[in-house]
Amino acid sequence: MKQTIDQIDVAGKRVLMRVDFNVPMLDGKITDDRRIHMALPSIHSVLDRGGALTLMSHLGRPKGNGFEKKYSLVPVAQRLSALLGKEVVCSDDDETSNIVLIENLRFHKGEKLGDEAFAKALADKGDVYCNDAFGTAHRTHASMVAVPEAMEGKPRVAGLLLAKELHYLDHAITHAEKPFVTVLGGAKVSDKMGAIENLLGKVDTILIGGAMAYTFLVAKGIAVGASLVEPDRIGDASRIIESASASTTSLLFPVDHVCAKKIEEGAEAHVFVGEIPEGTMALDIGPETAKRYAEILASSKTVIWNGPMGVFEVAPFDEGTRKVTEAIAEATSQGAVSIVGGGDSAAAISMLGLDAKMTHISTGGGASVQMLEGMVFKSVAMLDDNV
Q: What is the pLDDT of residues 273-306, one digit of tens each?
C-alpha cells in the first residue's frame, strides 16, 4: 500500500498535487464537474491541516505550442473556487496564493515528452508531491513521472482518490469473493484483449458484449453481417477462445442480437439469433443474451464492468446495457462488490440514475483497463510505501 496525503504532516508546506481536471467543456463552460468533485477530499485534507496547494492538470488536446483559450483551466479554477468557497488562482507564476492551479500542462511540449527541465521547474514549486490523478496514472508524462523523480528525498504520496482506485481495482482481482464476474463491452476488441488474457483463470465468468463481440464471433465461424469487426485481431480472438476453453473461466458471447441497417434513433430493428444477415449491423445484445447475463450477475459476489453492451445512447439499442446495469445494481444491493470502469459505462449508469447503486465508479477508463491487464504503473510505483 502507498502512503496517502492524509498520513503526512502538511502544515506550513506547499503540496504539489497532480489532479485530473480534464472535464468536458462546451463553449468555455464545464458540462460535467464530477472530476473536480472527486479531487475535493485530497484538497480538503491539505487545506484543513494548514497546507498550501499548487494543483496541476491537463485539459483536452492542445498542440503544445503555448496558450490556447479553448483549453484554458480558468473555468476550472472558477468552479473549484465556488466549491471551496476560497479563491483559486490560475497561474504558472503565483507561488504565494494559498491555492494555485497551474495552467494546462499540455500547453508545454515538455509535459507529454516527460522533459526533465520542465519537470524540475514544476518540482521546485512544492515541498510534497501528491498524485491524485488515476485517470492519467498509466501515462509517463512529466507531471506523473519526471516531477516525482525530481522530488526524490521529499514526500511523494498518493491522493485519496488514487488510493481508493488502487484499492478497488487491485483488491477486486487479488482478493475477490466468488463468484467473480467480469463484463466487457465497447467497440474495439483490441482495447480489451490484454484484460481478457490476464483475467483468464482469475475470474469465474467473462461476459462479452458490444461491438467487440463480433470479432470473436467471426473467429468462431459465425456470420455477423455488417457488424463492426477488427480483421487483424481475428487470429488473436481465436487464440483467446482456445485459452479460455483450457482455463477455469467461462468466456461467454451474445447468442442473439438487436440489429438494424443504420444507427438512428427509432431505426427499424430486428432480433436475430445466431447468424446476422448481410448488410445488417448488430447494435446491441439481444433479449435472450441480456436475460442470461442478468441471471449470471444475480448470483455474483464481485463484478467488474468496463464497456457498454451496445449503442446505448440511441434507442432502441440501449436495452442490453440497461438490463446489465440494473442486474449489477441489484447484485450490489445484495452484497456484491461492483467496480465500474470506462467513461461510457459511467455515462450509462448516470443516464439510468444508478450511480449510487454501484460500489465504485472509476475515474480512469484507460488506466482501469490497463490495471485489468495486470500492468504496474511507474507513476504509482515511485510513490512512498506505507511502512
A: 999 999 999 999 999 999 999 999 999 999 999 9
Which amino acid appears at position 234 of this protein?
I
Q: Give yes or no: 233 in active site.
A: no
Can you list the alpha helix ranges (DSSP code H) found in 53-152?
A: 74-84, 109-113, 116-123, 147-150
- In this prediction, what percent of the chain has a pLDDT beyond 90? 86
The yes-or-no answer on residue 235 being catalytic is no
Class of domain 5-162: alpha beta
For the chain, strand residue ranges (E) read 14-18, 25-26, 29-30, 52-56, 89-90, 99-101, 128-131, 156-158, 180-184, 205-208, 250-252, 256-260, 270-273, 281-285, 302-306, 337-341, 360-361
12: pLDDT strictly greater than 80: yes
Q: Which candidate in 292, 357, 366, 378 is catalytic?
A: 366
One of 34, 343, 357, 378 is an active-site residue; which one? 343
201 in catalytic set: no
* pLDDT of amino acid 250: 98
CATH number given to 176-372: 3.40.50.1260
Q: Is 343 a catalytic residue?
A: yes
Parts of the chain belonging to CATH 3.40.50.1260: 5-162, 176-372
Q: Of 2, 14, 18, 35, which residue is the catalytic one?
A: 35
Q: Does the global pTM surpass 0.85?
A: yes
Catalytic residue from among 188, 202, 292, 378: 188
